[in-house]
Write a structure and sequence with these properties.
alpha/beta; globular; 5-stranded parallel sheet; 3-stranded antiparallel sheet; 8 strands; 48% helix; Rossmann fold
């Protein structure tokens, strides 16, 4: 299957993408991984992307599209893929359609993970990271440390990252509504969108997604 995963920041896209890709035996292709791989391998696209990032500029759509195209042409993506973070806007969605059409392919489904805005803010703004090890992550509501501000694992200081503050989260949501949300309407017009309520345990959301995909594939 060829699937696009969309949803606001904090909807759990990365977590769901990993589970779904494993269950469906297709590669999980995330924009973040694409950029990191191209930059670390110093590909021409990676060097180009880095030149924009170093100046604090947004990487142009055509560079992101070229990276995605290159990744989707790898042998492991022959029988499908799950895209996470791409397309990010309507022009990227149109480019993806054109790219697939050239190969005689099309998308099977667009999974829209739906989470209320207040829940998104609560999820992200409540995160606390250990200064000693960023893999030690806690949450003031969902996974509170035994002692406030202290990591259960190593005793390090817990802090809130600048980009996890409520103000920053609301700004990120605004960007999502303006830039990315329009692709949902774009794909709705093609009858591809499947809305998945993304509240609840990770495995419950995965089960809902798999059931919805089975219906789409039927």
């Amino acid at each position: 299957m060829r699937i696009v995963l969309v949803g606001p920041p904090g909807a759990g896209k990365g977590t769901q993408a990993a589970f779904l890709a494993k269950n469906l035996a297709i590669p999980h292709i995330s924009t973040g991984d694409l950029f990191r791989a191209n930059i670390s391998q110093q590909t021409e696209l990676g060097k180009l992307a880095k030149s924009y990032m170093d100046k604090g500029d947004l990487v142009p759509d055509e560079v992101t599209i070229a990276m995605a195209k290159d990744r989707m042409e790898q042998p492991d993506a022959e029988n499908g893929f799950l895209l996470d973070g791409f397309p990010r806007n309507v022009s990227q969605a149109e480019a993806l359609d054109e790219m697939l059409s050239t190969e005689g392919m099309k998308l099977d489904a667009v999974l829209d993970l739906e989470v209320p805005e207040d829940e998104v803010v609560k999820r992200i703004a409540g995160r606390r990271i250990c200064r000693n090890d960023s893999a030690h992550v806690f949450h003031v509501s969902y996974k509170a440390p035994k002692q406030e501000g202290v990591c259960d694992v190593c005793g390090g200081e817990l802090y809130q990252r600048d980009d996890d503050s409520e103000e920053t989260v609301r700004t990120r949501l605004e960007v999502y509504h303006t830039q990315t949300e329009p692709i949902i309407d774009y794909y709705k017009a093609q009858g591809l969108v499947v809305t998945i309520p993304a509240l609840g345990k990770v495995e419950e959301v995965t089960a809902r997604s798999m059931e919805a995909l089975a219906r789409e594939d039927a």
